[in-house]
Q: What sequence folds into this?
DNA sequence: TGTCCCTAGCGAAATTCTTTCGAAAGTCAG
DNA sequence: CTGACTTTCGAAAGAATTTCGCTAGGGACA
């Protein structure tokens, strides 16, 4: 059975599915008193018939709205991404609803409500940034067909989630190679969360560089943190406790590198004479620190722009070329790296 | 004639005004084919009866939404404020629509549309942060009865606009007094835009401190910029060109101070031995710079929270105690200030 | 096992709102 | 004055929603 042309009405859908008109109305309006099975059947028919409620037709938004969820925004990394997202949003006439999740995201039930709200308010989708959203959290959005784009996921996302990032592996490799070229052999890595894909990729780029030069990887030289200044402080402290100290450190973020610098200054360790240091991100932090940080710059602004563009493309139902977009990183050499001490 | 209790329906309004139900429906939905006179009559009756369309009832927002407009967000100052706004928003279950205006705000016509949208979308109001919104821009919102709260206005706002800030005058006084206590007499001020109230207040706090100690104010030692790092660089360059150089600088923001530090390092001028430096804001920038900046800390996080709270109070129609809220600043002494060279 | 009561799920009927379409009244050129 | 057009409105039909009561399937309990 199928519809005989015409714009679909509730009554038509009702006939099609063998329920009453009121029941269809209830499904459309999200009432509770409809069995899950019946709801599913009706929703399928609605979908197939392309039904649009008159309220929906009326409300048709003049300006699209997207949601953006950050773990935290008090970092140059977050500011730069946000700046890119907002710039693109302004260019495309889209509004941005911003929220911070904190490292512990809302409980499941809350998350469900939030995802539902995104649907109710007819928002185009959500951009999730280095947030502790797990796969199951993302599923709440996925179930409701809400487009999601993740920037630098902290937890490995389901394979079908669209993500935007940088060439972290290549960046890690470039950083390590730069240090190797300067004659360093004991090179430590102070990274972000072990589960974070971006940090993982940087680590493996670093591994790759070491191995291709025949330098053995010492697991004691690899430490994980949370990309914060304090992690750099603690990281350096830990590394100095080793029998054989590293002569160079590759930090997984500029913030970590700043922490290393702070602790090094405290201990009267001269950078770069006694210790070379490479950061990651290429934010203003790298430029303003003393000494200025050699850092692997990520195109954070462009990543933000790309994320928004991708999200809207997804929302429009366009087929995406790839579920993963990586923008190029670039090693910027400043003053914090020097030849290894003899 | 009046309504006999009950929730008002279109039919009731129609009887009341002596037109047909369809005509009332058309007025409610803003159709064109209704005479202006009839429309006015019906609207009046709708207003009086307190009619709400079912669509409207449905749409009645569960969560309030506020708009936040920043000049730019790529600064620690902006991040900290935003963080506070978002924290309070999360606590109160309010959503935040964020946008950046850029230093040149949208043209008048666009601004009008934007203000209208705030009304259409039934948003609670707007928080404007150090933005180049002028009085006439704010008027667009004011005309529509949209609550506005301004944080650190760049242009003097109309007197009836609610604003949140810090005790800038006291902060400027404290900074200058600290330097005077260290024996400095030639103290420069590198501030923000001349029209910015917050910068003005800091400057006058500085004047006050100097004058109460009987130190003459040298107008050549006062320079204005835009709170950016570059303004610090240029500011110091300009000051060094003077016959008699200052021995201390009071910077209107930490970013300016960082610029001063950068230029000083470039020129091999030692801070604080040869030049003392006080910043303003007390952001992470102050803590991480070398030497760590003595700075007047603003409670940016709390200012953000207060702004949102105030806005919502205004939106609820509560009477505000004051059109101006100032939170206390605090001088934090670190390493960038020392006794004046002999 | 039977009885009672409760609840979830559904639809008939009534109510409310919207749209279509044609009629009445006004306007204007010729 | 006439005919063509426009504006404004409402009758009637159509669409969507709400109310309210029915029914069936489950416990709880004697």
A:
């Amino acid at each position: 059975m199928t519809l005989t042309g015409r714009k679909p009405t509730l009554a038509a859908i009702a006939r099609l599915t063998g329920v009453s008109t009121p029941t269809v109305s209830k499904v459309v309006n999200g009432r509770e008193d409809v069995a899950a099975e019946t709801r599913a059947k009706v929703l399928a028919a609605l979908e197939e018939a392309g039904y649009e409620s008159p309220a929906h037709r009326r409300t048709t938004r003049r300006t699209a709205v997207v949601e953006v969820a950050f773990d935290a925004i008090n970092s140059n990394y977050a500011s730069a991404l946000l700046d890119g997202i907002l710039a693109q949003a302004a260019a495309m006439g889209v509004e941005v609803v911003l929220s911070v999740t904190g490292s512990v995201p809302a409980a499941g039930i809350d998350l469900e409500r939030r995802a539902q709200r995104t649907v109710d308010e007819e928002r185009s989708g959500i951009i999730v940034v280095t947030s502790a959203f797990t796969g199951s959290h993302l599923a709440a959005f996925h179930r409701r067909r809400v487009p999601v784009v993740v920037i630098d996921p902290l937890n490995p996302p389901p394979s079908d989630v669209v993500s935007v990032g940088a060439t972290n592996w290549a960046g890690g490799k470039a950083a390590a190679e730069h240090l190797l070229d300067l004659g360093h052999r004991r090179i430590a890595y102070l990274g972000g969360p072990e589960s974070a894909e971006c940090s993982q990729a940087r680590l493996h780029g670093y591994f790759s560089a070491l191995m291709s030069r025949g330098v053995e990887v010492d697991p004691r030289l690899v430490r994980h943190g949370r990309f914060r200044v304090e992690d750099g402080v603690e990281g350096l402290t830990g590394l100095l406790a080793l029998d054989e100290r590293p002569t160079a450190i590759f930090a997984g973020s500029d913030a970590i590198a700043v922490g290393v610098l702070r602790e090094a200054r405290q201990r009267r360790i001269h950078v770069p004479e006694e210790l070379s240091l490479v950061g990651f991100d290429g934010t203003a932090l790298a430029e303003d620190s003393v000494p200025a940080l050699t850092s692997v710059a990520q195109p954070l602004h462009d990543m933000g722009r790309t994320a928004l563009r991708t999200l809207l493309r997804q929302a429009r139902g366009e087929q995406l070329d790839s579920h993963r977009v990586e923008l190029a990183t670039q090693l910027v050499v400043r003053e914090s790296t020097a030849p290894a001490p003899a």
